[in-house]
Design a protein that fits this description.
This protein is α+β, with helices and mostly antiparallel strands. It has a single domain, classed as Cytidine Deaminase, domain 2 (3-Layer(aba) Sandwich). Helix content is 16%, strand content 26%. The protein contains two helices and six strands; from the N terminus they run ββαβαβββ. Strands 2-1-3-4-5-6 form a six-stranded mixed β-sheet. The longest helix has 11 residues.
């Protein structure tokens, strides 16, 4: 889960969660993942603003399943960071998937 301030252009905290699907092809964040995120982010005054997952055999582009899962009014504005593990070097890209529209968001990793 990605933590930040709603509407902001950056992620402040990453909260790892378990893939309850236990699958290399699909993912779901269970209630325990959302609870862990709330417990980590709440005291910092942050909210869940997105999710990160991997594509093990494809490009880091939203799949039909990703777009279907994001088609939820509660998830508008969420960032979907996808890491492709297909090649030797991982590739990371970020997306907004609002109203079934796919828009790439530039990524910059900032230390500090």
């Amino acid at each position: 889960m990605l933590g930040g301030r709603p509407g902001a252009d950056h992620i402040e905290v990453f909260v790892p969660t378990r893939n309850v699907d236990a699958s290399a092809k699909t993912y779901s964040v269970g209630a325990d993942g959302f609870l862990a995120a709330d417990r980590s982010l709440g005291p910092l005054g942050l909210d869940v603003v997105g999710v990160m997952h991997s594509h093990t055999h494809t490009d880091p582009y939203p799949s039909t399943t990703d777009v279907d899962q994001a088609d939820n009014p509660l998830l508008i504005g969420w960032h979907y960071v996808i890491v492709s593990l297909r090649d030797r070097e991982p590739m990371l890209r970020s997306w907004l998937l609002d109203d079934r529209t796919i828009v790439e968001v530039p990524v910059a990793i900032v230390e500090g």
